[in-house]
Amino acid sequence: MPAPDKADHPARDTSPERADRTVLDARDISRALTRISHELLERNKGATDLVLLGLHTRGVPLARRIAERIAAVEGTPVAVGELDVTMYRDDLRSQPTRRAHKTALPPGGIDRKVVVLVDDVLFSGRTIRAALDALADLGRPSAVRLAVLVDRGHRELPIRADHVGKNLPSALAERVSVRLSEVDGTDEVTIS
Amino acid sequence: MKHLLSVDDLSRDDIDMLFATAADMHDVQNREVKKLPALRGRTVVNMFFEDSTRTRSSFEIAGKWLSADVINVSAKGSSASKGESLRDTVLTVCAMGVDGLVIRHPASGAALQVSEWVDASVVNAGDGMHEHPTQALLDAYTLQRRLGSLEGRHVAIIGDLTHSRVFRSNVQCLTKLGARVTVVAPPTLMPSGIAAWSAAAGFETSYDVDAVLPEADAVMMLRVQRERMSGAFFPSAREYTVGYGLTRNRLALLGPDVPICHPGPMNRGLEIAADAADAAQSAVLEQVSSGLAIRMAVLYHLLAGESEGGIA
Description:
The complex is a heterodimer of chains A (192) and B (312). Chain A is of the alpha/beta class. In chain A, 27% of the residues lie in helices and 24% in strands.
């Protein structure tokens, strides 16, 4: 059985006896995103040619939040898009058909741009592998970087993040759930 | 969803989900690399026992853009022309390890029959005068993109109803999406028993094009299917055009934003005048590109997941 690739959807976990431990609250998330935004700017020496691509589902609002922060610091808007990797997953065949989402690139495209993939949780690395394949079909960025809110370890592929909100050592059996106000009505990261 | 045989098998949720997937697929047409890897390693056979340009090429491109291997088998040039039975032809092809079978056949019910013989997923691409579900889906999808929602909108379907599988599938699909449907045909081309059917299914019938057009939010013209006609259903082509064609004069009865659909191939000058077919409000070419997106969505949902899985 393939390991679950992303944080499990919180709606699935309804057992009341299981104690959820909050790892990041709303302010922690906000601080982590602000730091990532500054790291991105520093690494890229400004916001020119930067494209933030959020991975569905929760990477999309994260990418938007980072873009807002960068715009606030730099005074110019930064290109944001969303990337759906459903068609590129390696576990399509072992699961019931998944609903695909929209892929929307910013008007300038991604050719010769520095693309930053943004996702909520980095786990096995399989989503990112799929995202890299998807990018190759969409254009040729000059560089691709990865920013995640939580890195929980247990990689199954040689992939690492360039910018991490929080390193969260976890057991394989544990569940890391990211909730964001845009999707779930609240901002928090819990482990259970 | 294992097969797509009839619009009747689809719930409102299924249709909405297919439309949402089609909207995602639509963007692929504008990409530089028109390829998604979702069906890599799957094989789709297009089996066409009737002539077709758009449906067959549309299914072929849809399969190829999803990275499936697509093979075309047509009646002409296959063993069917040597007298092989449908069952033997289908079983032979499926013995080669086919995952998806897209079938068009002149006999109503052929797709359903085939689905009982084989393990592969069967898509009905038109069976006689019965159904053509992907056409209905792409028509409704096109109209929904033009009109926003179909809820409460009035769609007029005009033409050769008796011989039309497109009409049979479309009425079901449109009413499921909440549209009000009026079907118009000369009495000779009105299917027998339509009074009971329309009462049960909740659509209206009319013989008067000129009364229906001014209040339509969308118009769907049907092809006069001479190849299926065994007798004289109307005195002359000219008479049909005068009574039921979408002529230049009738075009003026339509609002400027009312989409005009035609499943193709068009008999220009018979059921649809060139002025109407090429009008700015015509959706005919949009239907073709929507057809690709819809067929990609259908193939994806039938073939991408594990074989016993439903739709998540």
